[in-house]
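General statements about sequence and structure are easier to judge against a single worked case. In the encoding step, the backbone of a single protein was reduced to a row of integers, each denoting a local shape. The record that follows shows the chain in one-letter code together with its fold in token form.
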Amino acid sequence: MRSWTTEEEIALFNLVCDHKPAGVEKDKHMDVIISKINNDIPDGNFSVGEVWDKLATLYDLKRIDYLEDWEGDSGTESIESRSVKKEEQEDVKEEDVEEDVKKETKEEEEEEEEDEEIASPVPEPIKKTRTGRARSREPKPRRHLRNMAEKSGDESSGLSDVDSEKDEEEEEEALQKQQDESDEEKKSDEEEDVKEESEKPKEEEKPRRGRRGLSATTVSTSPVASGVNIEQPIATSPPPSDTLPDWDRGGRKQDKSLTALYATIRRLIDKNPESVCLIQVGSFYEIYFEQAEQYASKLGLKLAIKRTKNFAIPMSGFPISQLRKYVEVLVHELGVNVAVIEQSAAPSDKVQLNNLKHRKISRIVSPGTLIDESFLNFSSNNYLLAISFPPRLTDLPPDPETVVGLSWVDISVGESFIQQTTLKDLSADISRISPSEILLSQECQPLQLHNGKWYSPLQILRKYFLRYHTTQHTDLKLQFKAGLHATRKALENLTVREHAALSMVLSYVRINLPESNFSLELPTQYYNANVLQMDPRTRDALELIERSVNGRASVIGSFLTTIRGTATASGTRLLTQWIKSPILDINELQRRQSYVKLFLDYPMLRMATRLQLGQIGDFVRFVQRLIVGTGDDVVQLVSIADSLGKLQKLEEYLQEEYDRKPEMKVLGEFLKEFNVPRGVADEIHKTIYLKPNVVESGESSESSEEAPVKAEEDAEELLDSGSISNSDLDRYRIKQPDGLSTEPDFSFSVNRNFNETLSNLHDELDGLEIQEQSQITAIQQTLSEIDPKLTVSKREQYGRYSDVLYISGKQKSIVLALEKFDHDVRERKQRSFIYKPREWDELQRKINNIHNAIVSEERRIIEYLKIKVLDEVPVIRHASRLVDFLDVTSSFAILAQENHWTCPELTNSPCLEIEQGRHVVVESSLREGGSNFTPNNTNLGSDGKLWVISGPNMGGKSTFLRQNALIVILAQIGSYVPCERAKVGIVDKLFTRIGASDDLFNDLSTFMVEMVETSNILRNASTNSLAIVDEIGRGTSGKEGLAIAYATLRNLVEVNQCRTLFATHFGRELEQMLKVNEINQSDIRYFRTRVLVNDSDNEFEKKWIIDHHLEPGISATSNAIEVAQMAGFPERALDVARGVLLHL
């Protein structure tokens, strides 16, 4: 290697300072350096290779490309001035402070001073100390970037991703650092002074520094721990401290300063005090300050410390890929809102310094505003409910008739509802809606309505996620996907309270989805008078949607789970709505029954319809994602097109069946309403290539190893069928998961022949790709001459490099290849190097430009298709509702066919006549165990409106009560029912008093729970209601319990006069008390559960069996001792009980 004199080294160093050989202008600047050094130095004649060899001894060439990231325009101001500006922008960071350097000899200090006088934005040469120890004299900013690149794998990630390829040893070290979170304190704070520097007025005179000295306007500070003198401009007076928060960046010269990043984070946290702020910092989401201290341990994360000059800031974090996991924990388990704050490049109208990032809230995740989160249950609605109370609500005693407005939405499917209710019905309405989150006006927060002190039923609010919100009023018409006239008509009849509730819920959604342009269906008006009303305790007692198991809610064994046979998620949601809100309209119920009968009478029609329904998918959710803007538009469009295509096939099939069998009049009526948009699906399929391995979420359905193979097989099938050409096959092939490329799985989405512009761009790209392949082939031939085992391949992304050639092979061969290609080598290793010659770089620039042009044109086309789909949203949603209706009614037909159910006769008279009725849930459970259910008859109305049922425990009384309630619900959702014959008079309200348990959450004892439920029945039951009452008075003493039971029975007979099933152990006593008081018992009938006993004369040898049949009469005993014996009571205790019973 040629030797360099000291003068030549200094000349080269000065030229490098003025002409940075880095970035896109690297080759151009290197030519300037070669030209000037050869002109300035006699007998210079240096070659490019010799200059690069010398630079390799002075610099770390792996980092030299970072030079292009530094601020300043070459040629417009001096290198020294730019360096001073850089130093002015930086704060001293504790994490960058190194150990104090021991005192050097006078000769070494003089060398260092000479180095520092030559200001440069590049790392300074490595000097040798007298002990032979190499010590880097890098300026701190460059050292910071190096540290960030080396520590990019640390879990407490720095503030940007400086991607660099490491050797295997460095990768292992990075992995170790990721596991060792204690190194988080050593992280550097890259993002400094965003707002301050961008908003700072340009000074008229900047301090300038020459290569050999400083101007009089700068001073030299004392050495910091690293031993490097940091020169700073004279400090200007800071703003008055009393005008800024303690942590504000404006106090940077005081002891209470925060860096720009942490000041921004602090402001975001303060602006969203009710949300946990997850701030994206590089490839991590991080939590800071008091939120990190509060939630790190709850999330299973380690609490670390970020140190600045004046603060030790608590923080914790996790990789971006884990976002959904931790959001689920925060939202569902901890019950807090989550503000997701993403980073991006600064807006185009802002000055961006040093790759600083712009951060803003992309969305606030709350239980009621979930859209497509993985933990969202797609089979049930996720409602957000707003409740609007009148102003000054608690100034007067509670009035049960106080008007209350309700509005609830499910933004994941675009549904919205409104209702005006009363204070007394509010708890029942909340239970029916079953919201994931409830909103109250901010004015209600001081009232603490949920504690029940003002009105006890409002304690139900404590069971839900409760938020307080201040409405931000906007034009409501803009939030609905409908015509202006239709929207105005739908909203003009809203009451004051309904309008307030609707405004509140839409305002909350807008704030939580600031980046989304969401729209909903026009609100559906809900009336309590049209549905069967049930209070919360009735729904819980009947276990309609879920049941309590060991104190936890479970859907296993619930009524919904037992009868659910739907083929689609949207069908399950409709079935759930029907169960929660059985209707009173006989005409609509008979229409539903006619569809059930249709599918029963034509089993082939039922099978074919359900087969096609199962393939359609939840397309209304796809449409809503497209509207809101979540996920990949291409994926959503393809999913919608697929679903619409299957809907078209279903429509065609039903039409063919109707044409073949015109007697299916019900099907003909359905087809008149069933309209599927045809042109949209066809246009999407013609425009967009279907991605075979992309599922709903946009992620691959196969593993990373299987996905490429599967995609290639699918592509080969398309090729064999003639659908695509050979050139298309490579372009649409999934890229191999080498772990280095960040490119998407597919380059393009739109058919290249969609229009002339796109076709020409693809043709031009084809030509450039041929040139690219030719260059690779030529390089491979050159490498083969050196060593046939040397290989070259294109890497679209390799660490921080893009579109480079990766050459690999044996170490000795790499050394020989480097001699051949050394002038354009970007990074070298022992067995590989990165190569990027000028002609390759120019070709890649052209390819990228064409690629970007194609992407831009595709975006325009995708937006066009999106608009076409959104124009059809009302039609698509209507088709979805009809499909869901078919799904539910056909599932009813399967239930009826498999379980021998019958069609109930519906009437408005107050009767309930059931022959051989069965409990649908218990029968299903017994069937799985190989047992049969014992059916029973019911006849309320013609044979008395109130049945008093007595008998032993375990005799089946509670099961009989519940089975009749469930039969009524089945009848009033349009289903067949589990019995031989049924005549059901429409029930307006259903009440239950079943079970015995306390309610500690609401501070209610067991007996108090009984009394609350009984009181609700006696106050609200009408002649068209059904009440099922089980063992009134058992929670207190015998005499007082009997008195309560008698008073309840009399009120039901004389006042309420509703259909009642009254189970009790006081059968004989109640009959006698009614006779003594001469109460008319014409509407009362007495039944008992039958007990079979053998004929043994010995009382202790008698065997008894409960067969669960009901028979007329009153049970003489409750067989408590026998039940205790079945439960395993000790024989001695049983003897004592028998003896005491004989003397009572």
About this structure: The first helix runs from residue 6 to 18. The chain has a mean pLDDT of 76.
